[in-house]
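Trying the structure run again after the queue cleared.
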Amino acid sequence: MSNIKTAKRDRVPIGQKAAFGSGHLVLNLLPGALAVFMFFLVTAFGMDPFLAGLLGGLPRIFDALTDPIMGFISDNTKSKWGRRRPYIFIGAILSGILFALLFQMSENNSVMFNFWYFLLMSLLFLIGNTMYATPLVGLGYEMTSDYNERTRLMAFANTVGQIAWMLVPWFWVVIADPTVFSLSDEALRAIGEMGLTGDDLQKITDEKLQANGVRKLSLTVGLACAVLGILPALFCKGIDAGKMENRKKISMSTLGSSFKDLFQGIKEVSKNKPFMKLCGATFLVFNGFQMVASFSFFIIVFYIYNGNYGDAGTWPAWFASLTAVVTAFMVIPIISRIANKFGKRKAFIISTVISIVGYILKWWGFDNELNRQFNETSLGQGLNNGVVSIFNAINPFLDSIGMSWFSMDTSQGGPWLMFLPIPFMAFGLGGLFTLMMSMTADVCDLDELENGMPRKEGTFGAIYWWMVKLGQAIALVLGGAILTLVGFDEGAVSQTAETMTKLRLADIIIPASTAAIAIWVMLKYSLNETRAREIKEKLIERRGEL
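Done. Tokens:
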């Protein structure tokens, strides 16, 4: 256990931690909401799935180019407000406004009009989001120079950030709920004048409801992100850059030399072995998790409820939200304590091993027969009756505030055992981003020792998160390929028993395997607390406190 007490000057006040956490909430909420809303490009706006796929992939290429550039600009900026905060302030406002505008399309437009509108607005949104996200990550790396306070800061920020994942699963539920986002009288009249009946009438009504829900909810999300996003710019403090030497001049006249310096910085970062281990482990854990992220939804709907979406109800949303709740309020505080006692590398290995146990437990947690047996026990019956009583009591209130979608019906029992693996699985991503971001801050010190000024928190942050985005993009492609390989047919009312068995195995084997490889990658990670404190002392001796 670390016996070194964090100096007062290195402690981050709770107000600054909260402000930085609000920034992480925005970092999670924007991509989470974007992923949900883009699903409705096909179902609500009539987009061809191939075109919708292009809209998901093409902007990522642009994003990969802008991240390192913004990191370089942020690292070398000179202003009285600091290197990061002006960009965070402007970027938060732009991100919120452009996200809202992104989905202000009409389902009555031509498909190609909506395609080009969404593509161009996506590029503008990514510029604003990059201007916000990259400096924010860099700011977090420099808010404290203390080895353990960095972990506490990232733990707090990631706890707040998990609120986004408590909310996002419910977007699926509320978008098409007419009690939440009702159609205007004009829209209802237009539907009636079409003269449709039966399934055709239901289909066009659902499409109009979904499009209306996406437009209205995107305005709420955009406004919330703009307001929450500016808080780190107003209240967080980075290092004093006044003593920072060798910063490059950023202007049109120095464009050529700036690109040369940019590529030199990227080259230096890529030679940093501890950092590349962090990137490799993150790619493996996150990619493995994201590859099967949608599988739990399909298993609940098509295995537990045999393809009946109505019976499945809100169980998928509860599963995802409860995972975020456990991650935020149970797992992350535990990981922070483990890191303080055993060091960050050991904490990562411990948390990743626990997550593998959780993945394996999903085989029994999602088992229909075991869930049936549990519901017949006195504990299961008591749980079902208790939940029924609770929602019977609060349903009138939920109805009165337009939240009837939040209700749960357990009168026929429920797949309660599927929640048992969650406390174990949550150690995976909970440990990953808490520890990796803290360790990246340590790596920035090592880079300054080896390569001198200016410090490159922005560049390190840009490349690290580029790896995360690359993993997410690859995971989307591979996840779809795996669904095809196991014989999953999304258009079918139900799936074969063989398909669901293969899907359940893939849901366990893939993330467990990538997590195991990530542990192997981190076994020889060498930047421990002793080495980190030695580096800090050498830097202070060289250039004083920043």
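DSSP finds 21 helices and no strands in the chain. Worth checking whether this holds up in the mutant runs.
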